[in-house]
Design brief:
Layout (H helix, E strand, L loop, with lengths): L1 H30 L7 H11 L12 H23 L6 H21 L2 E2 L18 E2 L3 H10 L1 H13 L3 H15 L2 H5 L6 H17 L3 H13 L5 H14 L2 H15 L4 H13 L3 H14 L4 H14 L2 H14 L4 H21 L5 H25 L4 H13 L3 H8 L1
Length: 414
């Protein structure tokens, strides 16, 4: 008798607990039914509701989570209205409620599947697929609410990023991304343009970079391009990330893609591709690539200079000198070109010294000093264009010393 009584008491307690949680949910609904409810009213309602999100009797009900989602979105709406009328609001708090609303709604969508039953109480199945037939109660309203707020996630991500809350920014943009590519966005014809989705993915890459999550940043930058967002910063930031990761193979792949889209805007892509060919001793491929670039832009001094580098590596500096000269003909104010021409004359002078070990000093000077002076002309041009280049300074010092130009040497050493 006592055992039966204990069971009855336990059953009553469980029943009371379940009833109490449902009463909380119903009470929360009533407290927010007034359209004029303030943000604080909604916050209090969410606080009251939170125990129901973990209670055994209510945590698996779509209604519980959907109600929490509606309240969180309502708090965001109220705070946004306060901001619009000029009141000071905590933008991070505002965005946090927006993200919370999304997460609550995701859970509600997952739980909002009610199996249909036959007359005998057995689960109804689809005759074609054999799958259980389910119906939903809240999903249409939930998805409408998410689509209604999709653009707010994009804006909130920007606010969070600008305030240095990079992880939260990533989460806001991730919510945008998941909504944008969802089946319900497709069915309701609310899918944004691919380029806009790609732009948000690019922003996520920037947020990941800020937190040093380079692998995730690379994935986001790659996704941005897959969606068709191929602005130059997408490639440049991805290359930066890949260099930090030490992924040289992928650096070359991204540079190749960037060169096809933005090749004329930045020589760094071509330089990466050529260096890759040179590292593999593929001189012909490097030259062919560069000749095509020169054909498109014959006045580009950097292209000629790069070709000179290829020829010098494949053959020697004497073979490269005429090409370096073409570089400074195309642009006399190109410091690297001036340096490379001067360096070649300097190397020619050193070669003369090396090949004539038995000449007396006077004869050797007559032979070699004019060449040093040729080098000096171009190297001094390079120095005027860039006074901080240590390679230029090093050769200039040596030439000044050899030519007995003490005053110039002292000036350079100051």
């Amino acid at each position: 008798m006592r055992s039966k009584l204990n069971v009855l008491i336990i059953s009553l307690l469980v029943s009371f607990s379940m009833s109490a949680q449902q009463q909380v949910i119903d009470g929360v609904k009533r407290s927010i039914s007034d359209l004029s409810a303030s943000a604080n009213t909604y916050k209090a309602a969410l606080t009251r509701l939170k125990p129901a999100l973990s209670h055994e009797s209510t945590k698996d009900k779509a209604e519980t989570w959907w109600l929490a989602g509606k309240i969180a979105f309502s708090i965001y709406d109220k705070l946004q209205h306060n901001k619009a009328v000029g009141n000071k609001v905590d933008e991070k708090e505002m965005a946090t409620y927006l993200i919370q609303g999304y997460n609550y709604c995701k859970t509600a969508l997952r739980l909002d599947s009610i199996p249909e039953l036959n007359h005998d109480g057995s689960p109804k199945t689809d005759r074609k697929t054999g799958n259980r037939v389910v119906k939903t109660k809240y999903s249409s309203d939930i998805t409408s609410k998410l689509l209604e707020n999709m653009q707010h996630f994009a804006s909130a991500g920007g606010d969070l990023y600008n305030s240095g809350n990079w992880n939260d920014a990533w989460n806001a943009w991730e919510a945008y991304h998941e909504i944008a590519i969802s089946s319900y966005a497709q069915s309701k014809k609310k899918v944004p343009a691919d380029s806009l989705i790609g732009k948000m993915r690019f922003y996520q890459g920037l947020a990941s970079f800020q937190t040093s999550d380079f692998l995730r940043a690379h994935q986001c930058f790659s996704d941005a391009r897959i969606y068709g967002y191929k602005q130059k910063p997408v490639f440049d930031n991805d290359l930066n990330v890949l260099v930090r990761m030490g992924d040289t193979t992928e650096v070359v792949n991204v540079a190749r893609e960037a060169y096809q889209v933005h090749g004329a805007a930045d020589i760094q892509y071509l330089r990466i591709l050529i260096n890759d060919h040179l590292n593999k001793l593929q001189y012909e491929e490097a030259t062919t690539l560069l000749d095509k670039a020169i054909e498109k832009d014959p006045s580009n001094a950097e292209y000629y200079n790069l070709k000179g580098v290829i020829i010098e590596q494949e053959k020697d500096f004497e073979a490269a000198l005429p090409i370096y000269l073409k570089a400074i003909e195309a642009d006399p104010y190109y410091p690297v070109g001036q340096y490379d021409v001067g360096r070649c004359y300097y190397l020619r002078a050193l070669e003369i010294i090396k090949k004539n070990p038995n000449l007396n000093r006077s004869t050797l000077n007559n032979k070699v000093n004019p060449v040093f002076k040729q080098a000096l002309f171009y190297l001094e041009n390079a120095y005027e264009l860039n006074t901080n280049d240590p390679d230029v300074i090093k050769i200039l010092k040596d030439i000044y010393y050899r030519l007995g130009m003490g005053e110039q040497l002292q000036e350079l050493e100051r």
